Amino acid sequence: MKKKNFLRSPHYYGQILLTIAMITGLLAGCQLPQQETFETPKAQPETEIAKQIATATPAPRDDLPPALVEVFPIPNSKIGLQQPISLYFNQPMDKESVEGAIQFEPRTGGRFEWQDDQVLTFVPDQTLAPDSSLKLVVNTTAQAVNHKNLQEPFEIEFQTADMLKVSQFFPEDGALDIDPESVVFVNFNQPVIPLGGQTDADPAFSLSPEVSGKGEWLNTSTYIFKPDLSMDSGARYELHLNQKLTATSGALMDPLQTMSTGFSTTKPYVLSVLPLPGE
């Protein structure tokens, strides 16, 4: 029996080597790309950050002229007859020059009070005229501490409060046939008591003849009286205003205000008779 020859031709081995080379090349191409590495930035010291902030934030300028930025009460509003007026500037002011630059029309006496170098309050030492105009002028002679003057004068106007008057009586003066159990109230043209002061405030009026009941301020400008049971039927009552009342604005009672009114309650009458006639 003949032995088989297991030797291969050189061409056969060349093909094997070529195949191995191709596989090696493919595997090399499939390798993942090398990942880049990043370094974590180091935290800057707090002192360094503070220096950067200080460098980025410019210091406030001290060479600018002053300006009046706010006034209280609001310009063109109604003010009390003894109302302080506050002026707010945008930078520290030279106090003497500011006080000398302020004028009132009509002329008004009072004192100046500085809350700080930028806030000035004028407090009148007299009662202002009711229902009138008041003009406040701040001239350009007012200076800041940097010796810069106001660029233009400021003119502010106010309207003072009116005299204290009654807006409504109930019942009206001369009213007839008022329910004896009805309430009696008076409403004024402006606040007479401050908010929260209803419990200890003086009464706005009294009734004559006297009626058992409770009187109280319903709000800052309305006073109401409620009889415990009722007033007398067919009776005339007089309402007398409290002459000492003063508005929160400082206004006194108008001298032309009617101080007393009167009304009459319903007379008793027969509603029905029982038994009916003829029964």
Low-confidence stretches: 1-7
Order of helices and strands: HHEEEHEEEEEEEEEEEEE
Q: Give the strand order, joined by hyphens, for the main sheet.
A: 1-3-6-5
* Percentage of residues assigned to helices: 10-25%
Estimate the strand proportion. 25-35%
Rg, alpha carbons: 46 Å
Describe the largest sheet.
4 strands, antiparallel
Silhouette: flat
Class based on secondary structure composition and strand pairing: alpha+beta
Number of helices: 3
Could you report the average pLDDT, rounded to the nearest whole number?
86
| Total beta-strand segments | 16
Distance between the termini: 163 Å
How would you summarize what this structure contains?
This protein is an alpha+beta fold. The protein has helices at residues 10-29, 46-56, 95-101; strands at 68-72, 78-79, 85-89, 102-105, 110-116, 119-124, 133-138, 154-160, 166-170, 175-178, 184-188, 205-208, 213-217, 222-227, 236-241, 260-265.
Describe the structure.
The chain is of the alpha+beta class and 279 residues long. Helices cover 14% and strands 30% of the residues. The chain is built from 3 helices and 16 strands. The protein has helices at residues 10-29, 46-56, 95-101; strands at 68-72, 78-79, 85-89, 102-105, 110-116, 119-124, 133-138, 154-160, 166-170, 175-178, 184-188, 205-208, 213-217, 222-227, 236-241, 260-265. The strands form 4 sheets. It has a 4-stranded antiparallel beta sheet, with no helix packed on it. A 4-stranded mixed beta sheet has the order 2-8-7-4. Residues 1-7 have low confidence and may be disordered.
